[in-house]
Amino acid sequence: MLNTFTQVNGVTDTALNVWGLGIAQNFDAAAAAVYLGYRNMEADITCTGAAILAGPGAGACAGGAGGVSKKLPTEDINVIVMGARVLF
What we know:
Elements: E1 11-27, E2 32-48, E3 69-71, E4 77-86
Antiparallel strand pairs: 1-2, 2-3, 2-4
């Protein structure tokens, strides 16, 4: 299995921005509803490598000279949810 996780040490600041939208339609005659939702999430992680040892397994912020803060590259996550609910 592919390991896609990276150890992060010395985190000094984090932020997560989330926005989304959704729509739902009720069908009274069938006692049912269908829905569709979308969410976008973007993370910002700032860390410093001042107290981190260099070398393998040291983490993504290792080697920061003098404790210089750096922002880690992250990818946005887009989530689409769709479904139906039937009451009976």
